[in-house]
Amino acid sequence: MQPAPQDGAPLPSLHLWVDPTPRRGYLNMALDEALLRRPEAWLRVYGWALPAVSYGYFDTRDVAESLAPGAQEYIRRWTGGGIVDHRRGQTYTLTLPARQPGEAAYPESACLYARIHRALAEVLSGGGTPCDLLTQDAADGGRACWSSPVAADIVGPAGNKLAGAAQRRSGGAVLHQGMVQGCELPPGWETALAHALAEEVLLHTAEEPVPGLLQEAEALCRNKYEAPAWQDESHGRRRSHPSL
């Protein structure tokens, strides 16, 4: 059995997938969830095929369009959080598999959030971007994610937000979807972040790192993310969707 990563302790191993293909929005969400279902920990770094804005599970498309107009895709995430404009910046996802019987649980969400951002801040600082973790929530700036940094978000010396994320736990597994904006990422930052999080890193750069992953994600896209229930602004899917 592998021990659960406590605050500050590295994962035993981590699969790093630098996805070479920008994907359409809901396929990106489906791929993240497909990785969450796997028995290994994954760090995926990826792009978007179309100018996209994503919004948290409890937000609405109308709010997203009003705050970030002009995108070609508006994507409801499975995670919470605010409105994120993916027309600039870099998106990444970290998935941690469900713990097995007898294994210790993951740290609480706030602790795990800070652990991941502390590792990312070290990478940014090492690349020449001065930054630190915010110690407490900033003043509420509305639903736009970059207007309302929260505790453990990464900020620059002037308090400008550089990185934020949203999490969801499902059956003991953890989905962490993150974004970096407003700074230059150093070359090789993906590998540096992976090594800051794990003792062993297994690099993948292929179109499909695991056989059948794309097929699984496409089916998940059709049956969940692109289904009418997911688009339902009444949020009735929270009670009825079998995948939630």
Description:
The chain is 27% helix and 24% strand. It is built from 7 helices and 11 strands. The protein has helices spanning 25-36, 61-67, 109-126, 189-197, 213-225, 228-231, 237-240, and strands spanning 11-18, 42-46, 52-55, 73-76, 84-85, 90-96, 132-133, 154-155, 161-170, 173-180, 198-204. It has an 8-stranded mixed beta sheet, sandwiched between helices. Helix 1 packs across helix 5 and helix 3 packs across helix 4 (189-197). The two termini are 28 Å apart.
Figure out the total of helices. 7
Residue ranges: pLDDT <50 for 5 or more in a row? 1-7, 236-244
Measured as a percent range, the helix fraction is: 25-40%
Shape: globular
Major sheet: order of its strands?
7-8-9-10-6-2-1-11
Name the helix and strand elements from N-terminus to C-terminus, one letter apiece.
EHEEHEEEHEEEEHEHHH
Mean pLDDT: 89
Quote the distance from N terminus to C terminus: 28 Å
SS class: alpha/beta
Strand count:
11
**What is the radius of gyration?**
17 Å
Strand content: 15-25%
Biggest pleated-sheet summary: 8 strands, mixed
